[in-house]
Amino acid sequence: MFFQKKPDQSLPIDIHSHLLPGIDDGVKSMEESMEAIQGLMQLGFKGCVTTPHFYEEFYPNKESEVLSLGEEVAREIEKRSLDFKLIAAGEYFIDSSLLEKVKSGHQLNTFGKHHILVETSFLAKPQIFEEVIFELKTAGYHPVLAHPERYQYLFEQPSLARDWHDQGILMQVTSGSLAGIYGKGPQKLARNFIDMNIVNMLGSDLHTPKQLAGLKAGMTTKHYKKAVKSILLNHSLA
Q: What whole-number distance in Å separates Cα of residue 167 and Cα of residue 152?
């Protein structure tokens, strides 16, 4: 998918995507991965942090295998002479499996300055949320909460996100949410979080090239432009 004109505002690095082929619910082939990457380039991105799921029940990925596949995709990018930087990390589901990994000293896939992307169920906050966050911080990680605007429990208690942010949990909003691609609830919350100045990163959460249109739609919104002008950590990864 190619765009005639890229949005007026863009970030150097996209944070949060699923562009390693065949490893989770993201792209299924190397060709699909390259199509998505070229689409990101068309929108002005110079690179991305790609974050395959680490979810023991559904995607029991191994950190070393993810890093190896990331290197394979990076070689393909170089082979095609694409000017694009790919960083392989992960999106970790907060559950007992993650807690055990952290407590045992297991090395997790991170990006930036030991940042780690984490997610929860969309319906309810995990009972062990605070414990996992505490253990991550104690181990030297900087937790980043993926797409908080999509968690239904935050629809009812959005102030909780501010509390977490004040406690040092970084927030990553999905750009397409700003255009309403996930519905009115996430759109409203994403905009509110930006107005509250608690958004630290923007990401595409790209799973297929077909979702590039939703990303572009989000990038044309006034709240995306407002966020880009703030000090987002996307800039520091360029």
A: 21
Q: What confidence tier does 232 reach under pLDDT thresholds 50, 70, 90?
A: confident
Cβ proximity of 37 and 70 under 8 Å: no
| Local confidence band at 237 (pLDDT 50, 70, 90 cut-offs) | confident
> What 3-state class would DSSP assign to 206?
strand
**pTM of the complete model beyond 0.90:** yes
Alpha carbon dihedral 128, 91, 142, 232, in 10-degree steps, equals -130
pLDDT digits (tens, 9 = 90+) for 143-167: 999 999 999 999 989 999 999 999 9
Sign of CA dihedral 169, 175, 179, 180: negative
Rounded-to-integer distance, Cα 40 and Cα 42, Å: 5
User: Which backbone phi and psi does 167 adopt, to 5 degrees?
Assistant: -90, 0
Quote the CA–CA distance of 232 and 172 in Å, as a whole number.
10
CB 193 within 8 A of CB 148: yes
Kindly calculate the radius of gyration of the chain based on its CA atoms and give it in whole angstroms: 17
Tokens matching residue 48: 């991305």
Burial of 220 (0-12, 13-18, 19+ CB in 10 A): middle
